[in-house]
Amino acid sequence: MELRDYQIEAVDALYEMIFTERESNPLVLCPTGSGKSAIFCAFILNMLEQFNGMRFMVVTHRKKLIQQNYKTLKAMSPRIDSVLNKADEFGIINIICVDECHLVDDKEKSRYMRFFDGLKKNNDKLRIVGFTATGWRLGMGKLTNGKIFTHVAYDLCSRDQYCV
């Protein structure tokens, strides 16, 4: 699959953020239908080419998105509900990609936070990368205002991007 220019820019920006901001959990903000699955699949494949043995996981909240991600990556992306109580079974995960990450609640007892905390028991350096068309969450404002995501690596959703 050939990536569009902005998808290549997003992969490059994410790759750079991962290596320059070592403690970051970056976001990629792209509109609906812009190919976020292709972006994170290209990012994962790029990382695997560079770092043999790195382990990734992709989670989302809907079966339809899992099927879409599966077709793109050719690997199963678990629904958060199906892995919630099984974090210890995955061993070390280096990077987890969260599709539709605006749905992630950063409250301590939320299902995502419990799962992330479980994965961190095996790797306290776990990186969490979020993908969404919506960089906001009700009650939180910007997703970077919460406890999980720290930076925006790439933003194709801002008004400035539409005015180019």
Overall radius of gyration: 15 Å
Structural class: alpha/beta
CATH topology annotation: Rossmann fold
Mean pLDDT, nearest integer? 83
Helix content: 25-40%
Describe this structure in words.
The protein is built from 6 helices and 7 strands. It is an alpha/beta fold and 164 residues long. Helix 1 packs across helix 2. It is globular and about 40 Å long. The two termini are 26 Å apart.
Write the layout of secondary structure elements.
Layout: H1 5-20, E1 26-29, H2 36-50, E2 56-59, H3 63-73, H4 80-83, E3 95-99, H5 111-122, E4 127-132, E5 136-137, E6 141-142, E7 151-155, H6 159-162
Parallel strand pairs: 1-4, 1-7, 2-3, 3-4
Antiparallel strand pairs: 5-6
Helix pairs in contact: 1-2
Please provide a brief summary of the model:
The protein is 38% helix and 17% strand.
What key phrases describe this protein's structure?
164 residues; alpha/beta; Rossmann fold; five-stranded parallel beta sheet; two-stranded antiparallel sheet; globular
